[in-house]
Amino acid sequence: MGCIHTKCCCRYPKSLVGESQDFHEEDKNTVIERSLEFIPVASHNYHLEYLVLSRRGFYPESPDKENQDSFCIRTSIQGNPNAHFFGVFDGHGQFGMQCSNFVKDKLIEKLCNDPKLLDNPIQAYNSAFLCTNDELHTSEIDDSMSGTTAITVLVVGDTLYVANVGDSRAVIAVKEGNRVLAKDLSNDQTPFRKDEYERVRLCGARVLSVDQVEGLIDPDIQCWGDEESQGGDPPRLWVQNGLYPGTAFTRSIGDSTAEKIGVIAVPEVLVLQLKANHLFFVVASDGVFEFLSSQTVVDMASSYADPQDACTAIAAESYKLWMEHENRTDDITIIIVHIEGLSNV
Q1: How far from the centroid of its chain's Cα atoms is residue 76's Cα?
Q2: I want to staple 295 with a disulfide (CB 3.0 to 4.6 A). Which of 5, 10, 15, 182 is the partner?
Q3: Domain stop point among 207, 225, 248
Q4: Each residue's pLDDT tens digit, 29-53
Q5: What 3-state class would DSSP assign to 249?
Q6: Helix, strand, coil share of the chain (percent; to 5)
Q7: Is residue 196 domain-resident?
Q8: Contacts of 39 (CB under 8 A, 6+ apart)
Q9: Contacts of 315 (CB under 8 A, 6+ apart)
Q10: What are phi and psi of 79, to 5 degrees?
Q11: By residue range, what is the domain housing residue 199?
């Protein structure tokens, strides 16, 4: 679990009490943090307001399993009051928590120390992701079958730079008339994507669902529908002559074994200029989006004036849906960042 620098955590938020029975049972595993009431972006005369919620998943077979999600928020990067960073890191594997925390710390360190960051954020992002991946490989952490995804948003003035590796997600809310629409700021990197599927296949990966690996479904059927409507058996990556690593994503940091069959740490970077009709953006782990669409998350966030209430409601609904579909839940981490006072004059 990540912590905002110099700020403390509230481990027993009163707003969670009574929100839902399932969610209330493990309030002690939830962290809610409000760092600052607002972050000014003086260059364009607006400010950001944000809140973070992170909740450990429920794993009946491992009741004491640690939260493998972490997050990082850094304001005024390189002393620039108009540059701010938000990131969520979703660890996986036996050493997932160590991987996500390592990457959280190293990635922001490299961005902060890159003199070209504000002149060329895309180049800085690529360098930071790849160098962090290399350093994780050579660290004391065993990342052969462990790693982390990373979804990050760098705000520079009125521009967002969104860098993604894996299947966590960033979404922005756009006001159009009387509607608030969700626009994805990242594209999940999984075998559901034809381009990613073909890329890992060329690198030697077998792409099969667990049912196909176990012989319950014909492995020659290379069609799994789409990610939004797909059930609980997604296509995964396997080595040619083994039943590992079984990753459901095609990019990550770490995962040195999966790297040999095409899993890479190269981020996809989206650039978006903010406009007056951009209301807020959400940065969250796939524990949120497993059963909630981007539009549903934006709809829920739009219905609450307070980001804390929005985070709590979204996390509670995610938790409830996990328990309805599975006998466990994933770790859930969500950052909601409101954009206040921006005009395009």
Answers
A1: 22
A2: 182
A3: 248
A4: 666 554 445 799 999 999 999 999 9
A5: coil
A6: 30, 30, 40
A7: yes
A8: 47, 48, 49, 50, 75, 84
A9: 23, 30, 53, 55, 288, 332, 334
A10: 75, 5
A11: 190-248
